[in-house]
């Protein structure tokens, strides 16, 4: 066994120099650890941190949400039209006309003024003579049938964050103001701005008040509401999926592109706006509406709004 003694490490007495080296290494390690901790704290302090948003208790701030493909998958007036067709508000020959107009719009990707004007006139003629209360009651049913399951959870959470911060949240949409108001109330939001149709003694006349709340008209509606509510637009937020809403988004200090189309995505990136996309594959959500149900949804949609007009009076 003695021959194997060289395999066993021998303990050698620590010299003063080795003791000094060990103590120096331990001290250096301790000091370097403290230095790193101090540096990390310094970097955390110096690094720009994103302020909390929305700011709780800021009652001069509010949030404005587009509806179609921002809060809801698809277009509200198309879902509304499904319900009207189901209730025989219009016939197949009118459905074919709306189907052509909607197909052209989806393929071209732009809104042709003549097509849109024709669609509006057709839709207004369908609801002309019906009572506002009747359309409101039907709208409640249609929300449960076609809309409730199409709300984007991500966008709903954004709206709830503003509500939890004590801020008002408004829908801003070209959809009929009655339809938009129903959706806003069902989601617990403050209210809605939408397209207004004229009524006399509670009956639709078949005419619009002004024009559809679309594009620049949305920005004007937000500007007017902000003035009436005493809001600071620089502290407000706006959310939309469409480049048509760039005027509205540009009004506020906190613009968000939600499920953005190509033009809005490009514009948002160029201005460093925040983006959120809740769609699979980042492709534009398409509304799966059977031919017999719906492309005629424009048929009640454009003309269903009257509440704002009554308030103005």
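Sequence proposed for the structure above (313 residues):
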């Amino acid at each position: 066994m003695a021959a194997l003694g060289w395999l066993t490490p021998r303990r050698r007495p620590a010299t003063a120099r080795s003791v000094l080296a060990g103590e120096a290494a331990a001290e250096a390690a301790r000091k370097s650890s403290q230095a790193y901790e101090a540096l990390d704290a310094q970097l955390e302090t110096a690094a720009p941190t994103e302020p909390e948003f929305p700011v709780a208790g800021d009652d001069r701030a509010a949030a404005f949400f587009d509806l179609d493909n921002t809060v809801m998958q698809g277009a509200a007036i198309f879902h509304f039209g499904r319900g009207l067709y189901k209730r025989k508000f219009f016939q197949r020959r009118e459905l074919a006309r709306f189907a052509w107009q909607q197909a052209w719009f989806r393929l071209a990707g732009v809104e042709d003024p003549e097509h849109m004007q024709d669609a509006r006139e057709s839709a207004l003629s369908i609801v002309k003579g019906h009572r506002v209360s009747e359309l409101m009651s039907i709208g409640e049913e249609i929300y449960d049938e076609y809309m409730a399951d199409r709300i984007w959870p991500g966008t709903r959470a954004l709206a709830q964050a503003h509500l939890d911060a004590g801020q008002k949240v408004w829908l801003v949409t070209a959809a009929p103001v009655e339809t938009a108001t129903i959706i806003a109330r069902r989601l617990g939001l403050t209210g809605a701005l939408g397209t207004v149709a004229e009524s006399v003694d509670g009956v639709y006349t078949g005419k619009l008040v002004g024009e559809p709340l679309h594009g620049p008209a949305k920005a004007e509606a937000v500007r007017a509401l902000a003035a009436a509510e005493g809001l600071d637009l620089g502290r407000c937020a706006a959310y939309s999926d469409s480049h048509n809403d760039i005027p509205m988004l540009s009004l506020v200090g906190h613009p968000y592109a939600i499920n953005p189309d190509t033009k809005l995505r490009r514009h948002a990136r160029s201005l460093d706006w925040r983006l959120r996309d809740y769609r699979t594959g980042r492709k534009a959500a398409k509304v799966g509406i059977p031919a017999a149900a719906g492309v005629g949804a424009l048929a009640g949609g454009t003309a269903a709004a009257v509440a704002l007009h009554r308030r103005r009076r």
